[in-house]
Specification:
The chain has helices at residues 2-13, 20-31, 36-44, 49-86, 103-117, 131-134, 168-177, 218-233, 286-291, 308-316, 323-326, 329-332, and strands at 121-122, 128-130, 154-155, 158-163, 182-191, 203-213, 239-246, 249-258, 275-284, 300-307. With 339 residues, it is an alpha+beta fold. Strand 3 and strand 4 form a beta hairpin. It starts with a helix and ends in a 7-residue tail after the last helix. Bound molecules: phenylalanine (PHE).
Length: 339
């Protein structure tokens, strides 16, 4: 009898079935009232008393094993059946979770797009820069406060290697490689050593433009910026230029646009003035052209630079700068329609 139990145990261990019907046939063969294991139970009566304990244990073991194996086969046969009959693997999964573009990417693309239509091409440069491209070639005096530790992130042990604090470094990189006519737009991330708050961050994004050719004048700059403002904020937008100072432009100006909320009447957004500051600009200082290998007696140029966060704030009224870098999906999903 022990022989018979062992033989059945081997059989049970190797059972196979692919359909629920085959599994049922196995169940009948081994586990039903007229099955192999019931037959063993019947024979059990004639087992001598001293063997009963061991044989009883063996039969139980066999029964458990058979039940376990047949249940396993049943589960996988049912899964196979659902897969082949009911699941259409070619069906599109619903609901489709679409990602959204980041609001800063949306605004950057829009700015780049407007200037591309005016003939500007895209230029990019490294975020980890050297002092020359960020400051010296841009006519910053050696003791200019912007180089100070408070503003600039230095790479430890390499005082000459810094994180760029403005995208003007890309202008330098374009000018050193290319002679005029130059007409480029340079978007990118910049870093400044500032405490992070709702109004300031240690990194933000800029778009800078540079145009160098013969006979480029302030008039050209003004017209291009007016067109940009009207494309970006609507055809009724007006601009105003106020005198300012940058080491790399002379003369320099800051540009305001008529308030995007009240149109110039005065509201809380523009603090009653009717104007919002959006960018810095000016005629490229001849010293910058010379430092970058361009003959300033032949060529003139203009440059402008703006913060992407600032423009995005005016468009979407985001109150806290930190929202742009926290990746809160509830915030990012607000921009699904703007994609
Ligand atoms: N680089 C300046 C800044 O970061 C912006 C600027 C660019 C101003 C070009 C004038 C001309 O503030």
């Amino acid at each position: 009898m022990l022989e018979k139990i062992k033989q059945l145990l081997d059989e049970v261990n190797c059972l196979q079935a692919t359909s629920p019907e085959e599994v049922e046939a196995l169940r009948i063969k081994y586990l039903s009232k007229k099955g192999e294991i019931s037959a063993l139970m019947n024979d059990f009566r004639s087992v001598p008393a001293e063997m009963k304990k061991e044989i009883g244990m063996r039969i139980n073991e066999l029964k458990n094993k058979a039940t376990e194996r047949i249940n396993e086969l049943k589960t996988s046969a049912l899964a196979q059946e659902t897969l082949s009959d009911d699941v259409d693997l070619t069906r599109t999964p619903y609901p489709i979770q679409l990602g959204t573009r980041h609001p800063l990417t949306i605004v950057k693309n829009e700015i780049v797009d407007i200037f591309s239509r005016m003939g500007f091409t895209l230029a990019e440069g490294p975020e980890v820069e050297d002092d020359w491209h960020v400051y010296s070639s841009m006519n910053f005096a050696d003791d200019h406060p912007a180089r100070d530790m408070q503003d600039t992130f230095f790479v430890e042990a390499h005082p000459d290697i810094i994180l760029r604090s403005h995208t003007s470094s890309v202008q330098a990189r374009v000018m050193e490689k290319q002679q005029p006519p130059i007409r480029v737009i340079c978007p990118g991330r910049v870093y400044r050593n500032e405490a992070v708050s709702a109004r300031a961050h240690c990194f933000f994004h800029q778009v800078e433009g540079l145009y160098v050719d013969k006979n480029v004048s302030f008039k050209d700059l003004k017209q291009v910026l007016l067109l940009f403002a009207q494309e970006m904020f609507g055809p009724d937008t007006q601009i105003r230029l106020r005198p300012s100072y940058f080491p790399f432009t002379e003369p320099s100006a800051e540009m305001d646009v008529s308030c995007t909320i009240c149109g110039g009447k005065g509201c809380s957004m523009c603090k009653g003035s009717g104007w919002l500051e959006i960018l810095g600009c000016g005629m490229v200082d001849p010293a910058v052209l010379e430092a970058n290998g361009i003959d300033s007696t032949v060529y003139t140029g203009y440059a402008f630079g703006m913060g992407i966060e600032r423009i995005a704030n005016l468009k979407y009224q985001v109150k806290d700068l930190r929202m742009f870098s926290e990746n809160d999906v509830r915030f990012l999903e607000e921009f699904t329609a703007a994609n």
